[in-house]
Design goal:
The complex is a heterotrimer of chains A (436), B (319) and C (301).
Chain A lengths: L1 H19 L5 E7 L2 H17 L2 E7 L1 H13 L7 E5 L2 H7 L7 H6 L2 H4 L2 H8 L11 E4 L3 E6 H4 L2 H11 L9 H11 L7 E4 L8 H12 L19 H14 L11 H9 L3 E7 L4 H4 L10 E5 L10 E2 L3 E5 L6 H11 L2 H10 L6 H5 L1 H4 L5 H8 L2 E2 L7 H18 L4 H18 L5
Parallel strand pairs in A: 1-2, 1-3, 6-7, 9-11
Antiparallel strand pairs in A: 3-10, 4-10, 5-7, 5-8
Helix pairs in contact in A: 2-16, 11-12, 20-21
Chain B lengths: L6 H31 L21 H7 L2 E3 L6 H6 L2 H8 L2 E3 L12 H32 L5 H10 L5 H15 L5 H26 L2 H9 L4 H12 L1 H17 L2 H6 L22 H21 L1 H10 L5
Antiparallel strand pairs in B: 1-2
Helix pairs in contact in B: 1-13, 2-13, 5-8, 5-11, 6-8, 8-11, 9-10, 11-14
Chain C lengths: L13 H5 L3 H30 L18 H7 L2 H32 L6 H8 L7 H12 L5 H6 L13 H26 L3 H9 L4 H30 L2 H6 L8 H11 L3 H31 L1
Classes of the chains: A alpha/beta (436), B mainly alpha (319), C mainly alpha (301).
Keywords (chain A): Periplasm, Signal, Transport
Subcellular location (chain A): Periplasm
Family (chain A): Belongs to the bacterial solute-binding protein 1 family.
C-alpha cells in the first residue's frame, strides 16, 4: 500500500516536473498518419536547418485523428502548437476558441489572392463569406479517380466496348459513361469488377463518395448561409445523383460495404476493379511499383461531369492552424510565415505535399511532376465541401444513417431517403437555433 | 484412480486426442498465418491461394523499426551503394528512410512504445495483483458489514464501458498532470484489473484452510507474519494465474492508451494498426509488430503455465 | 462497518497483542483498495452523472445548461438507440453462448489423458493474448471475399461475411468466440479437474449413462466457476467496441458502445452521451446483479 502511495506521489511529481519544462525552441504539429505528414516533416527539417527551431510532426491513425485532436482541444491541452485539421472542423474549432484567429495574418500576406480560391473558402474561412480566417491552406486534396489503363487500352476490350455502347472506351467524361464502363468491366466470373467506391459509414467516407455524385449532378447539400435544406438536399438532382451512386455499388467487388482509401487502392493493386475513387493524397502509393504491381498500367482522371455538364468533386485536405492553448504561439506564427513563402510552397510541392499555392499549382513543372498532378490541378478549382458548422458530425452521422442502408442494403427509395434526411437536418439546425 | 480401461474407452480417448489436435490446428491457423506473414515479401501477403512456401525475408522487421516515406525519385546507384544493408532493403521496397534536420535516421516509434508497454503492464500487474491479494485476504478472513455489497461494488467497477469514464478521466488527469505519463496508465490499468484480481484471489484464499494460519498464530507468529509466511506461499499458484490475466489485459489495452497518452507514454497497441495509414496497408509490417508484441505475453504465460493450470483448479471452486 | 468486525481471536489474546489487531489489518488491506476504486471510478461517474442532465458539449466552450431529464427522455424515445440495444443483446447472447459451448467442449476433451496437455492448453490460449484492434484488422483480411483465406479454406467462393447485413454480426461474434473460448476453456478445465474422480467411479458402478453423469455430476460441480467465466465474458461482450468497430460498419452491427463512442467523440454531445452511458451502466448492473445472485445460489448447493 505504501508502495502505491509513494508511486502515486512520485508519478504526479514526475509528470509535473515534465509538464512545466516547455522548450521554446521546439514546435509540435499534429496530423494524421500518412505520407504527406512525412513530407511535412522533411519540409520542417529545412526550417530547423535555417532557424534552429526543431519542428516535430506528430501523427495518429486517421481513424482516431478527429477524436484525439478534439480531446486535446477540449482539455485545453498545450501538447500541440499547430494542427493540420480537417476542413469540417473549422466551425467547431473556431467557435469554441480552439484555433487562433489568423485573419490579420491572412490579410497581411494577401493569402486570399495567392492560394487557390476553393482552398481559402473551405479550409480557412468561417463562417462562410465572413472574411474571418482560422487556418492556412496547407494540404490541398480532393476526390479523384484511378483506373486500369492497361485494361482500357486492350484492343479487344476497346472493340467490345464500342460494339456494346457505341462510343470509344476511354476515361469517362460523365457519370453515364462511368456507369457504362463499370458495368462493362464487371465480370464476377473472372473475379474482375467494375468500380471501387467509398462506402464506409464510420466517419465521412461514404458521404464524400455520395457528394461526388451530388455536386457533379449540380446539386447542393443545403444553403450554407441560411441553413435551409428542404428542397435542396432532397432536390430532383440529388435524387438522381444518389440513384447513380447506388447504381455504381452494383458493380463493386464482393464485400464492398466498408471501404475507404485502403480498400479502394487495393482494388487497383489486387486487380479487383477497373476504376477506383480515392483522394489524390493516396495516389503516390499507386505509382510506386513496389507497392502497386500494376503501377505502369494505372492512370488517373478527375471526377466526371454530371448530366447537366457541371463538374465538381468532394473536398478533402487540411489547413494548418495555431492551437490557442499552445505556449509557443509566436514561434508557430514565425513558422507559418516561413511556410507560406513561395519558395517554401514550391519546395513543399517538390517533396510531395499538395500545395494550395496558385502559382505553384499553375506551373507546368508541378502539373507534369506525377501522372495525377494534372487531374489534381483541374479538380482543385472545382471542389465543394460538407457542412462546416460545429454540429457537422451530427449531420454526418444522420446522413450515414439514412443513406447507407439505401446504398448497400437496398432499403427505401432515393427520394424517401433524402426527404427523411432533410427532416433530420432541419431538426438538428432547429436544435442549435440556426433556423426558426 | 487405476481405472480398468475397456477397449471402448481407449477408442474414445483416441477420438478425443484427434479432436483436440484438429481444434488446436483450427485455433492456431490465424496465428500461424500472422506469424508467417511477418516474414513474407510484401507482394505475397495477400495472395490467393495463400503462399505457404516462400523465402523468408527480414524486410518487415527492418520496416518495423524505421520511419519511412514513399520514394518519389529513385536513388542514384551511388546512393544505393553507399547505403547500409537495411537502408537498401527499404529502397527495394520503394521507400526511403526519413531523416531529421541533422541527417540522423529516424527510428519508428515501435521500440519506445514497446518499452512503454513493458513498464506500464508490468507495474500495473504487480500493483493490481498485490492490492488484490491483500484485499481478497481481508474479505476472506474477516467479516464485515455489507461484504457482499462491497464485493459487488468492486466487480461493478469493471462494468463501465471505457467511453463512459474517458472524458471525465481525461479532464481529471489533465488537472493533476497525469496525462501522457506512465503512472497515468499504470493507475488506470491497476484500477481496471483490481476487480478481477480481488474476485479471483478471494476464491483462492477461501480455499486455504484457516487452520494453517491458526497453527502459525499459536506458534507465536503475528497475523501479518502468518499472512506473509503461510498464506502467501499457499496462494502462489493463484497469484500466478491472476497475474497472467492482469498482464494480458494491461498489455493489450487500446482505448485509454489512445486517448490518455501521446508520444511520451503511449503503449504499442494503438501504434501497431497505425501502420495501415499510408494509402496501402503493409500487412507484413503489421504482422511483424504483432508477433513481436505477442512474444512477452506468450513467454510469460508459458513460464507460468503449470501454475496457471494448477492454480485455476486450486482456487475459484468449492470442494 | 468499522465496528462490525468479528474476529475469531480474542482481542486480549497473545497473538493479537503481538502485532496489529485484526481490525487494523483488515482495514489496512481493504480500505485502500476501496478508496482507490472510489477515486478512479466513482469520481468520474459523479462527474458524468452531473453532465447527463445538461446539454454540455465538450467541444465548445459554451457553458452547460441544465435540461433535466430531457436527454434521458429523448434517448429512450429514439428508435435507433433501441435497435442498438437489441443488436447488443443479440451479440452478447450469440458470443457468450458460443464461447461457453466451444470453451467447455474443449475443456471436456482436454480433461483426459492427452499427451502434451500443458503445451496444448498454453498454445490454445494464444488468441486471447492478442490485442483486440490487431485481431480486428487481421480478421477483416481473413474474411475478405476476394483475398481472405477463410473463404479459400472453406471453399465458399466470394461469400460476404461482413457486408451481408444479416451475417456481419455473427461474423464479429465468431471472431470473439475464437479469441475468448480459450478463456472459458481454461476456467472450465480448472473446474473439471477439481471434480473428485470417485464420483465418476461411483456413477460407473451404478451404470449411469454418460448424459446422466454429465448433467448430474459434471455440470453442477463445474457450474460455479463456469458462472464466473460467464459473468466476465458477458460484461466484456456488452462493452465490445474495437473489434466490431474495426471489422464492419453495418447498421446491423452498431453495438451500443459504438453508438456511445460516436455520440461522445464524433458528435461531442457530451451531456447526452453521459446519459446514454448511464442507461448502459444500469443495464449491465442489473444483469450482473442477477448473475451474481444466481452464482451465490449455485455455490450454496
Amino acid at each position: 500500500m505504501r508502495k502505491t502511495l509513494t508511486g502515486l506521489l512520485a508519478g504526479i511529481g514526475f509528470s509535473l516536473a515534465c509538464g512545466t519544462s516547455a522548450f521554446a525552441q521546439e514546435l509540435t504539429i499534429f496530423w494524421a498518419e500518412w505520407d504527406p505528414a512525412n513530407y511535412l516533416q522533411e519540409l520542417a527539417n529545412l526550417y530547423e536547418a535555417e532557424t534552429g527551431v526543431k519542428v516535430t510532426v506528430e501523427t495518429t491513425p486517421w481513424s482516431d485523428f478527429q477524436t484525439k485532436a478534439f480531446t486535446e482541444f477540449n482539455a485545453k491541452g498545450s501538447a500541440y502548437d499547430m494542427v493540420v485539421g480537417d476542413s469540417q472542423w473549422i466551425g467547431a474549432a473556431s467557435e469554441a476558441g480552439h484555433y487562433v484567429d489568423l485573419t490579420e495574418f491572412f490579410n497581411k500576406h494577401k493569402l486570399a489572392e495567392t492560394m487557390a480560391p476553393a482552398t481559402v473558402k473551405y479550409y480557412a474561412e468561417y463562417p462562410a463569406s465572413s472574411g474571418k480566417y482560422w487556418s492556412i491552406p496547407a494540404e490541398g486534396d480532393a476526390v479523384g479517380w484511378s483506373y486500369r489503363k492497361d485494361w482500357f487500352e486492350d484492343p479487344k476490350e476497346m472493340e467490345a466496348f464500342k460494339a456494346k455502347y457505341g462510343y470509344d472506351l476511354a476515361p469517362p467524361k460523365d457519370w453515364k459513361q462511368l456507369r457504362d464502363i463499370a458495368e462493362f468491366f464487371h465480370r464476377p466470373d473472372e473475379k474482375r469488377y467494375g468500380v471501387a467506391i467509398y462506402t464506409d459509414n464510420s466517419y465521412d467516407a461514404l458521404v464524400m463518395g455520395v457528394e461526388n455524385a451530388i455536386f457533379s449532378f449540380g446539386g447542393e447539400l443545403g444553403d450554407y448561409a441560411t441553413y435551409k435544406v428542404d428542397g435542396i438536399i432532397n432536390s430532383d438532382k440529388n435524387v438522381a445523383a444518389l440513384e447513380a451512386y447506388k447504381e455504381l455499388y452494383k458493380f463493386t467487388p464482393p464485400g464492398w460495404a466498408k471501404s475507404f482509401f485502403i480498400e479502394d487502392n487495393q482494388a487497383i493493386t489486387e486487380n479487383l476493379a477497373a476504376m477506383s475513387m480515392n483522394y489524390f493524397a493516396f495516389f503516390p502509393a499507386l505509382v510506386n511499383e513496389s507497392s502497386n504491381p500494376n503501377a505502369k498500367g494505372t492512370g488517373f482522371f478527375a471526377n466526371p461531369a454530371g448530366p447537366g455538364g457541371e463538374q465538381f468533386a468532394a473536398l478533402g485536405g487540411q489547413g494548418i492552424s495555431v492551437v490557442s492553448y499552445s505556449e509557443n504561439q509566436e514561434e508557430a506564427m514565425k513558422f507559418l510565415e516561413w511556410f507560406i513563402k513561395d519558395d517554401t510552397q514550391k519546395k513543399w510541392a517538390e517533396l510531395g505535399g499538395y500545395t494550395c499555392n496558385k502559382a505553384v499549382l499553375e506551373s507546368a513543372e508541378f502539373q507534369n511532376a506525377t501522372p495525377y498532378n494534372k487531374a489534381f490541378y483541374e479538380t482543385m478549382f472545382k471542389v465543394k465541401d460538407f457542412w462546416a458548422t460545429p454540429e457537422y458530425a451530427e449531420l454526418l452521422i444522420q446522413m450515414n444513417q439514412r443513406v447507407y442502408p439505401y446504398i448497400t442494403g437496398d432499403q427505401g427509395t432515393a427520394k424517401e431517403v433524402l426527404d427523411s434526411l432533410a427532416g433530420d437536418w432541419n431538426a438538428t439546425f432547429k436544435k442549435y437555433n440556426r433556423v426558426q | 484412480m487405476a481405472a480398468v480401461r475397456t477397449s471402448g474407452e481407449v477408442a474414445l480417448n483416441r477420438v478425443a486426442i484427434a479432436a483436440v489436435i484438429v481444434i488446436t490446428l483450427v485455433f492456431l491457423a490465424p496465428i500461424y498465418w500472422i506469424a508467417s506473414t511477418a516474414f513474407k515479401p510484401r507482394n505475397l501477403a495477400t495472395t490467393i491461394p495463400p503462399t505457404v512456401l516462400f523465402q523468408p525475408e527480414v524486410s518487415p522487421w527492418v520496416k518495423l523499426f524505421t520511419k519511412r516515406s514513399q520514394l518519389r525519385t529513385q536513388p542514384t546507384p551511388e546512393e544505393y551503394e553507399a547505403a547500409p544493408w537495411w537502408e537498401r532493403i527499404v529502397f527495394d521496397g520503394g521507400e526511403k528512410v526519413v531523416r531529421d534536420g541533422r541527417g540522423n535516421v529516424q527510428w519508428s516509434a515501435y521500440p519506445d512504445r514497446f518499452m512503454n508497454s513493458l513498464i506500464v503492464a508490468i507495474t500495473s500487474t504487480v500493483l493490481a495483483v498485490g492490492m488484490g491479494t491483500f484485499t481478497a485476504y481481508g474479505f476472506s478472513r474477516f467479516k464485515m458489514k455489507g461484504e457482499a455489497d462491497l464485493l459487488f461494488f468492486i466487480l461493478s467497477t469493471r462494468m463501465l464501458p471505457p467511453v463512459v469514464v474517458a472524458i471525465p478521466m481525461f479532464l481529471m488527469y489533465r488537472m493533476v498532470g497525469l496525462n501522457d505519463t506512465h503512472w497515468g496508465l499504470i493507475i488506470l490499468y491497476t484500477a481496471f484489473n483490481l476487480s478481477f484480481s480481488v474476485w479471483l484471489m478471494k476464491g483462492f484464499i477461501d480455499e486455504i484452510p484457516k487452520e494453517y494460519e491458526e497453527a502459525a498464530l499459536v506458534d507465536g507468529y503475528t497475523r501479518m507474519q502468518a499472512f506473509f509466511k503461510v498464506v502467501l506461499p499457499e496462494a502462489a499458484t493463484g497469484i500466478a494465474a491472476t497475474a497472467v490475466f492482469c498482464f494480458i489485459t494491461a498489455w493489450n489495452e487500446y482505448a485509454f492508451a489512445l486517448i490518455m497518452t501521446n508520444r511520451r507514454a503511449q503503449t504499442a497497441p494503438p501504434f501497431i494498426p497505425s501502420q495501415v495509414g499510408s494509402g496501402l496497408p503493409d500487412w507484413t509490417v503489421i504482422a511483424a509488430g504483432t508477433v513481436l508484441f505477442l512474444l512477452p505475453v506468450a513467454i510469460f504465460t508459458f513460464l507460468l503455465r503449470n501454475h496457471l493450470l494448477r492454480g485455476m483448479s486450486f482456487g475459484a471452486i468449492r470442494k | 462497518m468499522a465496528t462490525a468486525v468479528m474476529t475469531r481471536l480474542d482481542p486480549q489474546s497473545r497473538a493479537a497483542a503481538r502485532g496489529w489487531s485484526d481490525l487494523t489489518i483488515r482495514n489496512l488491506f481493504v480500505i485502500p483498495t476501496i478508496l482507490f476504486l472510489i477515486v478512479f471510478n466513482i469520481f468520474p461517474l459523479i462527474y458524468s452523472l452531473g453532465y447527463s442532465f445538461t446539454d454540455f458539449r465538450a467541444s465548445t466552450n459554451a457553458p452547460a445548461n441544465f435540461v433535466g431529464l430531457q436527454n434521458y427522455r429523448e434517448l429512450l424515445n429514439d428508435p435507433f438507440i433501441w435497435s442498438n440495444f437489441a443488436i447488443t443483446a443479440k451479440y452478447v447472447i450469440v458470443s457468450v453462448v458460443g464461447q461457453v459451448i466451444v470453451g467447455f467442449g474443449m475443456a471436456m476433451l482436454l480433461n483426459r489423458d492427452i499427451p502434451l496437455k500443458g503445451l496444448l492448453t498454453t498454445l490454445l490460449l494464444l488468441p486471447m493474448m492478442l490485442s483486440m484492434a490487431v485481431v480486428g484488422l487481421f480478421w477483416k483480411l481473413l474474411y475478405d471475399p476476394s483475398f481472405g483465406i477463410i473463404n479459400y479454406a472453406l471453399g465458399l467462393g466470394t461469400f460476404e461475411w461482413l457486408s451481408n447485413p444479416n451475417m456481419a454480426l455473427y461474423a464479429v461474434a465468431l471472431t470473439d468466440i475464437w479469441m475468448w473460448s480459450p478463456f472459458v476453456m481454461l476456467l472450465s478445465l480448472a473446474g473439471l479437474s477439481a471434480v473428485p474422480k470417485h464420483l465418476y467411479e461411483a456413477a460407473a458402478i451404478d451404470r449411469a449413462g454418460p448424459l446422466y453423469t454429465f448433467f448430474r455430476i459434471t455440470l453442477p460441480l463445474v457450474a460455479p466457476i463456469l458462472m464466473i467465466a460467464i459473468i466476465f465474458r458477458t460484461m466484456e461482450a456488452f462493452k465490445t467496441f474495437d473489434l466490431a468497430y474495426i471489422l464492419t460498419s453495418q447498421p446491423t452491427t452498431e453495438l451500443i458502445s459504438i453508438r456511445l463512442y460516436k455520440m461522445a467523440f464524433q458528435e461531442w454531445q457530451t451531456g447526452r452521451s453521459c446519459a446514454l452511458a448511464y442507461i448502459v451502466l444500469i443495464m449491465i448492473l442489473a444483469i450482473t446483479n442477477i448473475y451474481v445472485k444466481y452464482l451465490n445460489k449455485v455455490k450454496e448447493r
